[in-house]
């Protein structure tokens, strides 16, 4: 059975152009601490306009593993990135309020290719639209489009007015899918049309095509002494 990490998605404001500074802080502490000892096996940092997106991969949901301790050097990291990264939600009171809420997930039945790519898509969403967005994707994921597009997993998150879509794909099909996004196939165009009452571009003035909603990755760390379990 294919191993899939448990993912937390953290969303904050970030000063545009500060990616190198923020990435360097994490690079330093990921070298001198061992996040994997607390169940963390990878992290991706991405940016989109004034947003900072931190995708944290864990071996297991902390609710199951019981590994609830804060990450190594959490306070030092927070202080060092503080000039660049600030809370996003209007209701923010503590760090847990920066963690986006997962409201939908889909994975195909059976095995999926080992060589998979993760794309992070960012949009604005209308208040309390999670159930409508989930319904649109559930309808689409029940049909042939995911297989045709090489989709190997989908996870949807919300935080305040931000919608985060983690799209995992078979890398071999990713280029073809991107081309389809430039000239959408009817099924993909229908999904976009069905979503349009609930989501919109994060920065409408700069949006020309779906690729303009894709966040840019600027840092990646993976635990080099851990391998996923294999099926028995």
TrEMBL record:
<dbReference type="InterPro" id="IPR038474">
    <property type="entry name" value="Polyketide_synth_cyclase_sf"/>
</dbReference>
<dbReference type="Pfam" id="PF04673">
    <property type="entry name" value="Cyclase_polyket"/>
</dbReference>
<dbReference type="GO" id="GO:0030639">
    <property type="term" value="P:polyketide biosynthetic process"/>
</dbReference>
<dbReference type="InterPro" id="IPR006765">
    <property type="entry name" value="Polyketide_synth_cyclase"/>
</dbReference>
<dbReference type="InterPro" id="IPR011008">
    <property type="entry name" value="Dimeric_a/b-barrel"/>
</dbReference>
<protein>
    <submittedName>
        <fullName>Polyketide synthesis cyclase</fullName>
    </submittedName>
</protein>
């Amino acid at each position: 059975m294919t191993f899939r990490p448990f993912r937390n998605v953290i969303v904050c404001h970030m000063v545009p152009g500060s990616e190198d500074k923020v990435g360097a802080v994490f690079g330093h502490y990921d070298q001198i601490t061992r996040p994997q000892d607390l169940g963390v096996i990878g992290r991706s940092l991405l940016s989109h306009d004034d947003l900072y997106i931190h995708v944290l991969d864990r071996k297991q949901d902390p609710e199951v593993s019981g590994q609830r301790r804060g990450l190594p050097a959490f306070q030092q990291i927070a202080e060092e990135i503080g000039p660049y990264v600030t809370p996003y939600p209007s209701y923010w009171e503590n760090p847990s309020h920066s963690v986006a809420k997962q409201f939908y997930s889909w994975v195909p039945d059976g095995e999926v290719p080992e060589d998979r790519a993760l794309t992070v898509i960012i949009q604005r969403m209308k208040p309390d639209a999670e159930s409508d967005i989930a319904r649109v994707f559930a309808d689409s994921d029940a049909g042939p489009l995911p297989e045709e597009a090489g989709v190997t997993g989908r996870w949807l998150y919300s935080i305040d007015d931000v919608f985060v879509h983690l799209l995992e794909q078979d890398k071999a099909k990713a280029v073809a899918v991107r081309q389809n996004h430039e000239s959408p196939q009817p099924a993909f165009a229908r999904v976009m049309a069905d979503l349009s009452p609930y989501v919109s571009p994060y920065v409408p003035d700069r949006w020309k095509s779906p690729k303009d909603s894709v966040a840019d990755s600027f840092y990646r760390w993976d635990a080099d002494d851990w391998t996923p379990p294999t099926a028995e």
